[in-house]
Amino acid sequence: MVNKDIDSERRTPRQTRAMQTWDAILDAAAQILRTHGEARFTTNHIAERAGVSIGTLYQYFADKDAILNALSDREVGRLHGELHAVAVKDSMASLESRARHFVRALIDFFARRRRSRRIVLLKLLAVVSTGKPDARFAGILHDVTAMWNESAPPDHRVDALSMTVLSQALLGVLRSTMILQPELLDSPALEDRLVHLVLSYLCTPLGSFHRQAARGV
């Protein structure tokens, strides 16, 4: 029996061989989720698929939840890289073009490898939906805000709170779509609606709401 009170991640890989073992375990876990779903997602099956002993697996991960956490970290890293690539590529593009490319990157991220990614992302998004994003998601929000503001004109720059509101809205739509209507992730109409959401939010000065509230509108 594995002691649940110890750190969920037993050993951080630093050497090349250890990193290869770490990656092999995560790749095996993702393959099992993709092929069999959660039914066969056990440490024994993961170790067997990865070609390592169960003892070796437990040197790195305390249990299958720790493996899911590591998969979440890896997915967040990939999303961060994709959004950063979009920001660099679109540094001189129009606001609409940048908004569309950001939205497309998010949709593509959710749409690929749906079965395995769905389980991992829903675990991550379950934290987001509580209104208490963990450090991984908070870091992405901070970086996306910085990337957006680097190339945005002054009147379209956003603060951290505005980006949090917008990101929660986008992720809420994508989360429910992944659960209830995953086929819509391939729909150009969904992309258009989300781009409209982003542009409407960014192009409406916050001060106008303050003025309307003061007039009782």
Give a summary of the structure in a few sentences.
This protein is an all-alpha fold and 217 residues long.
How would you describe this structure to a colleague?
By secondary structure, the chain is mostly helical. It has two domains: 47 residues, Arc Repressor Mutant, subunit A, CATH 1.10.10; 133 residues, Tetracycline Repressor, domain 2 (Orthogonal Bundle). Helices cover 72% and strands 0% of the residues. The protein is built from ten helices and no strands. α1 packs across α4, α4 packs parallel to α7 and α6 packs across α8. The chain is elongated and about 55 Å long. The chain starts with 15 loop residues before the first helix and ends with a helix. The N terminus is likely disordered.
Please tag this protein with its features.
217 residues, mainly alpha, Arc Repressor Mutant, subunit A, Tetracycline Repressor, domain 2, disordered N terminus
DSSP summary: helix tally: 10
Structural class: mainly alpha
| Spatial gap, N to C terminus | 63 Å
Content of β-strand: under 5%
Topology:
Layout: H1 16-36, H2 43-50, H3 54-60, H4 64-89, H5 95-111, H6 114-128, H7 135-151, H8 160-180, H9 188-202, H10 206-215
Helix pairs in contact: 1-2, 1-4, 1-6, 4-5, 4-6, 4-7, 5-9, 6-8, 7-8
